[in-house]
Amino acid sequence: MKPLDAPQRALAFGANPPLSLPLRYFLSAPLFATLAAALLAWQGEAALLTRWSPLTLAVVHLMVLGCVSMTMIGALLQMLPVVAGIGVPGTGRVGAAVHLCLGAGTLLLAAGFWHENPVLFRFAMALLLAGLLLFVGACTVGMWQYHLPGAGAVVAGVRLSLASLLVTMVLGALLASVFAWPGLLQLSLQRLTDLHALWGLSGWIGLLVIGIAFQVVPMFMLTEPYPKWLTGQFSTLLFMLLAAASLSSGWNGAGALLHQASLWLLAGGYALFGGVTLYLLARRKRPRADPTTLFWRTAMASLLAALALWLWPAATPSNAAPLAIGVLLIGGVALSTISGMLYKIVPFLTWYHLQQRRDISGRKPPNINQIIPERHAQWQYGLHAAAVLLLLAACYQPMLARAGAALLCAACLALWLNLWRAARLYYSQSNYHHE
């Protein structure tokens, strides 16, 4: 295998999938986030009293599965052929099937939590496992191919994030089985839940964000490339620490020390990534921060804040700390990252596909910056940042929950509207025939 060098900036656009493939994911994701925020606004304080509340679990899974994972799966199906030259077999059919299973399964899972209905959990498990296994299987087959030179760091991060997704799925299936068939399995729910969250947030989402950042931060935000010592075996080291922390979970004596040491080193690794990213963004070639840069700065600052709160939980009331960490990681890190990414990917893809159809449509595509005007993205970022801050405060003062959720609902709807305008522009111009 070739050494993991810094990712290339030249992309293989000849392998670009149809725009409809990623757009169905990108337009669905903000709607799931809007639904999660609307439920939180409806329930208010009740959904932020404890992380074990069925209401809280419904909101969290709508956000993590329906929004974050939905966006990342769509982005991977788009990026693997272009960035790494990796063709996912049956991309169109696989993409449609996974989108349907993920969307329907997420809704059923949230309804299962909401109503505490075993039958809903069974249907949700079947759909989610089918869709996610199909996605992982197709990507795994594709990754047997030779990837483009310079894409090694990105591909390594994707491979490890997919392995983490498999672990997350197994743990999630065990947890869902407890609700789907009550009394059948006697499991330690707290330990399984902690491991499920650890692999989902630190592995599947965290490692994928790192792998994608190695490509998109230098390319879209005009920074210097990440240093080679970070793009080498860094993702592999984090994965090994994640595995060590999981295997030593629940051990006593020396095993407990190993568990704590693994968690501290894992947190230190993510803090290092966050610090390096903030450093690169501070030294970018364009001093004025566009919305994508603001979103990524917010994501990295939220990551550092969440790690500090995780390592020193005594600084906050015990019940509020896990909720605050969840708000920072899901709203501050994951949602900020994917929002910033979408504001670069969607306009560029829209422009590129319109350019490819120029001979058919007879129309010159608009400038990339005109597809989603920057002022629209700036306003949406302001709503998003205010919502994250209010929800973070609501973990300590639950009376703020409805206000924070209402702002988040508005921010997610604004994100969807901005993306929908780009999609409408593409379909209106691509169907236009020059007389």
Automatic annotation (TrEMBL):
The chain crosses the membrane at residues 21-42, 62-84, 96-114, 120-144, 156-181, 201-222, 234-251, 263-282, 294-312, 324-354, 405-423. Keywords: Membrane, Transmembrane, Transmembrane helix. The keyword Membrane applies. This is Permease. It comes from Duganella guangzhouensis.
